[in-house]
Amino acid sequence: MKMEIRVRYAPSPTGYLHIGGARTAVFNYLFAKHHNGKFIVRIEDTDLERNIADGISSQLDNLRWLGLEIDETIDHEGKYGPYQQTKRLDIYRSHADKLIADKHAYHCFCTNEALDKMKAEQQKVGIFSFQYDGRCAKLSPAEVKKNLADKVSFAIRLKTPKNKIFTINDMVREEVSFNTKDIGDFVIIKSNGVATYNFAVVIDDYLMKITHVLRGEEHLSNTPKQLLIYDYFNWQAPRYGHLTLIISETGKKLSKRDGSLMQFIEQYRNQGYLSEALFNFISLLGWSSHQEREIYTKSELIKIFNSDYFSKAPSMFDVRKLLWMNNYYIKNLTQEQYLNLVVPFVKSEHDWESKDEQWWQELLLIYQKQLMYGAEINELISLFFENKPPLTKEAQDFLQTNPDASKKVLDDFKAKLATTDDWSLQEIENIIQQVKADTKITGKMLFMTIRIACSRQTHGPELAKTIKLLGKEQVLTRLTDLKL
Ligand code: GLU
């Protein structure tokens, strides 16, 4: 029987779902689904001080919003639960005890002061990556027994051999070798009884029958520690793949502190990005389809997700590409879906009742082709709500190219508008044609002058529709206010 592929995304609820985490989750999901396997989300919450109150719910909620169906997790358990590390502390402890019994681990009674002193002494002789000196490994069984009976606080450390080489066949980097010489005996259970990440992750991946681990390259340096634990238990390690960095346009690693770029899925969601677009965009951060196309649905990606195509170079988070892609998906929404996307943004800034439903729909729909994200709608429609919008620089420049012609167009257009009772699209188009016939001014001079007079801008949605939606009174006021 073929082995079932089981992968996991293992967020620490110390923050919200970040682009980097989402990429790891999406790749694991696609890999699992491509192979008809299982996608598991395990909550790694052993760093108690750093956990945030809504960390878990926000991680799960945003993963699901992105479209990831989770086969096993805390609120949807499979048979390998619990799926939250703080609920598994006894499991880690009993495994640590086994390692102690096998002499691969030992109790360390060193106080923080003793460890600080050790660190300072190492630094004095130029060693800056601290390594525990192994003193508690030398305690006699009687000393250990006495300390335990006296309830002296302890951690559990793993014995680390000096020069063991581990070699893995990484799914992204191919062959990678590690030497244990720089590791030192590290803590697997802290003095508060909680397992450390490197220990818990191994126990869980093994017990949850995880076959492949795709994760960020920042975990590469943890891999030898984890391999050592597998080795001591005589367990087979999963196949690893360490995904390359995501970098910003300036070439730097995305930093959560960099406020110039939105980095959390929730922020994109709140700004009215579509989950399908984000999923598509994220799937191409460090993976390529080896085709010319950029647009893929989730099911297409599941079908073509080939793990030979992970990129070896860092991938750039290209904001413009994301905007382009989101716009592509917005253009393809049905009218109803589109209105569902934009109306809440509009209602948050405008008095919806002040106009009728039909007017709003017409207004909002003229922007569907252009809109890049939901929240942008308020910026786009603002020209319909300002009483005296300022002239843009381009508009001013244009009006100076031939003021006489512009004035002629405007006077005639205004006179004709003022006398019409019919404010239909057809009539507005007719009037523009009559202005053209009467003034003999055509093309850009005609249309741009009218556009600027009505909107104060050189770009915008379809002219006659804009005029219709602005309404007669507003258009006449704007025409009167424009001094040429
Ligand atoms: N909890 C780890 C993190 O949030 C994931 C570790 C792993 O995938 O092995 O970075």
Features:
binds glutamic acid; Rossmann fold; 4 domains; 46% helix; cytoplasm; two-stranded parallel sheet; glutamate-tRNA ligase activity; 484 residues; mainly alpha
Compact description:
With 484 residues, the chain is mainly alpha-helical. Helices cover 46% and strands 9% of the residues. It is built from 20 helices and eleven strands.
Describe the structure.
This protein is mainly α. It folds into four domains: 1-75 and 244-332, Rossmann fold; 88-243, Rossmann fold, CATH 3.40.50.620; 333-382; 393-481, Arc Repressor Mutant, subunit A, CATH 1.10.10. 46% of the residues lie in helices and 9% in strands. Helix 17 packs across helix 19 and helix 18 (443-455) runs parallel beside helix 19 (463-470). The longest helix has 17 residues, at 403-419. It binds glutamic acid. The site of glutamic acid has 7 residues, from loops. Catalyzes the attachment of glutamate to tRNA(Glu) in a two-step reaction: glutamate is first activated by ATP to form Glu-AMP and then transferred to the acceptor end of tRNA(Glu). This is Glutamate--tRNA ligase.
